[in-house]
């Protein structure tokens, strides 16, 4: 996407062929800072500490992390060490394992002298494919928005609620949940987005609001608990979220709070869509609530809030008693029964085994 007229992706190959450039998302929205990942450990820290985040971007960063590691040492032991280091960074987004397994499949059969270059090209392929897939997701999602727009009174926008950041900053470009929104906006449809701030790390407030604002998409930031009220009063026409792992039966794991949004949507007859690339489908998992590992992050993310002080200094403040423990599950699982449809690169389907099989027959599970 463009930032002040300059086209950016969220990750890019370093000119030296041995590093990768990223946007440090922990500094947004107040500071736009880019970083260079030049080692396996830097790539691992970038994922673990959420300098980069979002399932597809985590996968792309891991692919470049392996390529960077192999530039230093392409031995079998180094290959395994790279995999083990990166797979341990965050447990929930399946794109991490998907990307690492794909890199291993591509380079492990090669001689060590060929591995680094092959991994480097593969990382670029992962990024280019992500951009194309997300654009396709947007095209399919655009038709859903167009159909809603046709039923709105002239001049009134389609009001879309989204949770967390499933934007271009969560992917290599376009985003998943935001791709239909960007394409609808660019096609001249009137859209307005309710952006959940998304406690505790506020990806909605700091990333989604920033993205939409930069692209000129009308939006309103809301607290996480306002969505149900807005739906009760007919102010939400559809919900679109992303996902970090979706099961073979259509259960959707996403940022904490998504499940509650889906419950409110069902209770108010609001369509609840999930946008995802097929790389986020875990075909080996059926029951998301029971089988998907939910990341437990540091409670300090709950008790401390980052922001910009009135004097312009970016700082953090404690919002709870220093003696109060905090729990911080980072994701929850929305059962397929609460999901209206899945917007994938191959089209829209029901959140079900049959729906996924209709679009991905080659992956149909028994
Ligand atoms: C398109 S994947 C976006 C997905 O990832 C986010 O989690 P995190 O910011 O912790 O990486 C959130 O669940 C988004 O929906």
Automatic annotation (TrEMBL):
Site-annotated residues for Transition state stabilizer: 164
GO-annotated molecular function: S-methyl-5-thioribose-1-phosphate isomerase activity
EC number: 5.3.1.23
Binding site for substrate: 53-55, 90, 203, 254-255
Protein purpose: Catalyzes the interconversion of methylthioribose-1-phosphate (MTR-1-P) into methylthioribulose-1-phosphate (MTRu-1-P). Also catalyzes the interconversion of 5-deoxyribose 1-phosphate and 5-deoxyribulose 1-phosphate. Part of a bifunctional DHAP-shunt salvage pathway for SAM by-products.
Reactions catalysed, as given in the entry: 5-(methylsulfanyl)-alpha-D-ribose 1-phosphate = 5-(methylsulfanyl)-D-ribulose 1-phosphate; 5-deoxy-alpha-D-ribose 1-phosphate = 5-deoxy-D-ribulose 1-phosphate
Record key words, sorted: Amino-acid biosynthesis, Isomerase, Methionine biosynthesis
Entry annotation: catalytic residues: 244
One of the protein's GO biological processes: L-methionine salvage from methylthioadenosine
Pathway info: Amino-acid biosynthesis; L-methionine biosynthesis via salvage pathway; L-methionine from S-methyl-5-thio-alpha-D-ribose 1-phosphate: step 1/6
Amino-acid biosynthesis found in the keyword field: yes
NCBIfam families: eIF-2B_rel (TIGR00524), PRK05720.1 (NF004326), salvage_mtnA (TIGR00512)
InterPro entries for this protein: IF-2B-related, IF-M1Pi, IF_2B-like_C, Initiation_fac_2B_a/b/d, M1Pi_N, NagB/RpiA_transferase-like
Family in the record: Belongs to the EIF-2B alpha/beta/delta subunits family. MtnA subfamily.
Name of this chain's protein: Methylthioribose-1-phosphate isomerase
């Amino acid at each position: 996407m463009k930032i002040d007229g300059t086209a950016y992706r969220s990750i890019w190959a370093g000119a030296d062929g041995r590093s990768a450039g990223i946007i440090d998302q922990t500094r947004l929205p107040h500071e736009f800072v880019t970083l260079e990942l030049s080692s396996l450990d830097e790539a691992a820290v970038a994922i673990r500490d959420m300098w980069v985040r979002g399932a597809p971007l985590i996968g792309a960063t891991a692919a470049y992390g392996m390529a960077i590691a192999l530039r230093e040492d392409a031995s079998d032991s180094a290959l395994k060490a790279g995999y083990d280091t990166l797979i341990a960074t965050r447990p929930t987004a399946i794109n991490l394992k998907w990307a690492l397994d794909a890199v291993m499949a591509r380079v492990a059969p090669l001689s060590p002298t060929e591995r680094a270059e092959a991994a480097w090209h593969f990382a670029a392929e992962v990024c280019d494919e992500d951009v194309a897939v997300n654009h396709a997701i947007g095209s399919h999602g655009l038709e859903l928005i167009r159909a809603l727009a046709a039923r709105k009174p002239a001049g009134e926008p389609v009001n879309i609620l989204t949770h967390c950041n499933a934007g271009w900053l969560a992917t290599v470009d376009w985003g998943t949940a935001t791709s239909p929104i960007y394409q609808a906006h660019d096609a001249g449809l009137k859209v307005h987005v309710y952006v959940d701030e998304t406690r505790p790390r506020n990806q909605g407030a700091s990333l989604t609001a920033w993205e939409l604002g930069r692209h000129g998409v009308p939006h309103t930031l809301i607290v996480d608990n306002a969505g149900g009220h807005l739906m009760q009063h007919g102010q939400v026409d559809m919900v679109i979220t992303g996902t970090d792992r979706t099961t073979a039966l259509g259960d959707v794991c996403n940022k904490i709070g998504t499940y509650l949004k889906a419950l409110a949507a069902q209770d108010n007859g609001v369509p609840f869509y999930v946008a995802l690339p097929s790389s986020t489908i875990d075909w080996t998992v059926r029951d998301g609530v029971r089988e998907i590992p939910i990341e437990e992050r540091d409670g300090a993310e709950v008790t401390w809030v980052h922001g910009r002080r009135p004097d312009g200094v970016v700082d953090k403040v404690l919002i709870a008693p220093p003696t109060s423990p905090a729990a911080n599950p980072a994701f929850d699982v929305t059962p397929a029964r609460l999901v209206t449809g899945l917007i994938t690169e191959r089209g829209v389907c029901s959140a079900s085994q049959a729906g996924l099989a209709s679009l991905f027959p080659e992956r149909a599970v028994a």
